[in-house]
Write a structure and sequence with these properties.
Blueprint (H helix, E strand, L loop, with lengths): L1 H18 L13 E7 L6 E4 L4 E4 L4 E7 L3 E6 L2 E8 L9 E3 L4
Parallel strand pairs: 1-7
Antiparallel strand pairs: 1-4, 2-3, 2-5, 5-6
Length: 103
């Protein structure tokens, strides 16, 4: 009888031990885009580079940009990234409208 109880205890312990997941998991929160607007008050058309492509903005137009946190918006120089004019920071630029002449 003691042998049967001992075998049953060993079987139960091995089942319980094997059912635990020992893999460490890490929870990663997705980074939300930071949206802001720029009004082109320069009197001429300007082309911006978002890091993924170019966006032309005509004079007098207000354009909304949504970039990942920490990404920069650049002036486009012949289709390539030029000078960085603003960095997407939710606390500093999120939801605000900026005049191009003030950047």
């Amino acid at each position: 009888m003691k042998k049967i109880a001992f075998i049953f205890a060993l079987a139960t312990m091995s089942f319980v031990t094997s059912s635990f997941n020992t893999t460490n998991t890490e929870i990663v929160t997705p980074v939300a885009d930071v949206c802001f607007k720029i009004k082109n008050d320069s009197g001429k058309s300007i082309t911006f580079h978002t890091g993924k492509g170019t966006v032309p903005v005509n004079s007098g137009v207000v354009k909304e940009f949504c970039l990942p946190e920490g990404a920069a918006l650049y002036l486009a120089d012949k289709g390539q990234k030029g000078k960085a004019i603003i960095t997407a920071d939710a606390k500093k630029v999120g939801g605000k409208t900026f005049k191009f002449s003030e950047l």
